[in-house]
Amino acid sequence: LNKKYPEPRMFRQRDRLKSSYDAVIIGGGGHGLAAAYYLARDYGLTNVAVLEKGYIGGGNTGRNTTIIRSNYLTPEGVKFYDESVRLWQDLSQEFDLNLFYSTRGHFTLAHTDASVRTMRHRAEVNKHFGIDSELVSPQEVQKACPYMDVNCGGNVPVLGALYHAPGSIARHDAVAWGYGRGADLRGVEIHQQTEVLGVEVTGGKVTGVKTSRGHISTPKVLCAVAGSTPRILQMVELRSPIYIHPLQAMVSEPMKPWLDPIIVSGSLHVYVSQTARGELVMGASLDPYELHSTRSTFDFTESLAAHMLELFPMLSHVKVVRQWAGMADMTPDFAPIMGKTQVEGFYLDAGWGTWGFKATPVCGKTMAYTVASDRNHDLIKDFSLSRFINHALVGEKGAASVGH
Ligand code: FAD
Ligand code: PYC
Fold first, then answer.
1. Which long-range CB contacts under 8 A does 376-380 form with residues at least 24 apart?
2. Which residues pair with 10 in a beta bridge?
């Protein structure tokens, strides 16, 4: 970089692809960029290209509702997400970029006896691993959130909630920009508008990738493409149980701050938080059919608005200003698929469905270790693709937040 000028706000636009790299990362979402960042920072691996078919952060990274938490159900999940929450807390400072990381506290409401039992179970697992989670009464929910109708109009009253104090939100695009800029400053090349069209495998080993801008030789490919994972897996003749469903979200017009915590209700199919800008960011369940598309629907807006009004009747005159969708790469056990695969040099970071934003930092760290050393990091060894053959699933459905 020319020292006369300050560091670029973002990253360099490279006009040429090289003919070979030590590693290629497919996907310029948070996960791919975080892996590139830690590969360069922690392992000195900088002859690396991140190939993004659109623009960075334009996939699920820039489409999610930004909920960050570690109150999972399985020991494997809790340890993994807890490490991510730890990493999140230092990122703004590390990047010298304000990610608007804001710790707000996270309530998962229980409206039935069965969900109270699940919340109690989660609270106990969480506490066992040192995570700050507890079962609280409807009165405590009401105190933290005075504008909520905890009786939900008498239909499905709140019977209790799992409260997770570290629950946070952050500005999602900034996460991609922070990791992208950090990787770029260390020499990694980020190529937008560059689609991977094929992955070359010779004698069971990765040897290169075919892109919309030409051929690249490389011995290592990390696939971090969320909703496009099945397409890339086809290129290397691997099969996975991943299936794609749209997940939609919407935001309201900005309001003065009134909602401090993050509120999730699995039974009402609602999750909501208020951003620093005052907008309510809201989401609901997965669309109930497989579809590889980011279209959004009026059905979604209508039913989410109805459920929001059951919880917050005073919002009846508030306007919705935007809605959109992402493609969620779902797995049967609601846990990710990470690590080495049967194809030598082909690494997978996928199966992030509706839950992967919070995992961005820890995915970057653990995948960088795995790619650099060709050994699965300890924190991801239970998330391997082979668990579906070995019947070793990691059941996280009860902690997924999103209805299915
Ligand atoms: P992405 O950000 O999708 O990046 C993958 C990139 O790969 C894309 O930019 C895409 O263009 C690129 N790509 C695809 N194919 C190719 C190709 N052939 N060549 C080159 N590039 C390619 N998670 C949470 O933890 N909390 C939440 O509150 C939350 N809410 C969500 C709400 C919604 C509406 C959605 C859709 C998801 C939500 N998630 C949430 C899930 C989370 O957004 C994702 O799991 C996470 O962002 C995945 O990041 P990624 O970097 O793996 O994928
Ligand atoms: O994983 O916490 C989550 C979440 C909330 C909404 C979508 N995903």
1. 376/338, 376/339, 376/340, 377/339, 379/79, 379/80, 379/83, 380/80, 380/336, 380/338, 380/339
2. none
Residue 49 near residue 377, CB atoms below 8 Å: no
Whose alpha carbon is nearest atom 7 of ligand 2?
A: 354
Ligand minimally distant from the alpha carbon of residue 271: 2
Question: Which of 51, 64, 233 most suits a substitution to test ligand 1, by most atoms within 8 Å of the C-beta?
Answer: 64
Task: Tell how far the Cα of 4 is from the centroid of ligand 1, in angstroms.
Answer: 36
pLDDT at 170 over 70: yes
pTM: 0.97
Question: Which atom of ligand 2 has the smallest separation from the CA of 358?
Answer: 1
Place of tokens 């960011």: 281
pLDDT tens digits, 37-70? 999 999 999 999 999 999 999 999 999 999 999 9
pLDDT surpasses 90 at 2: no
- pLDDT of residue 179 exceeding 60, the answer is yes
Amino acid identity, position 320:
V
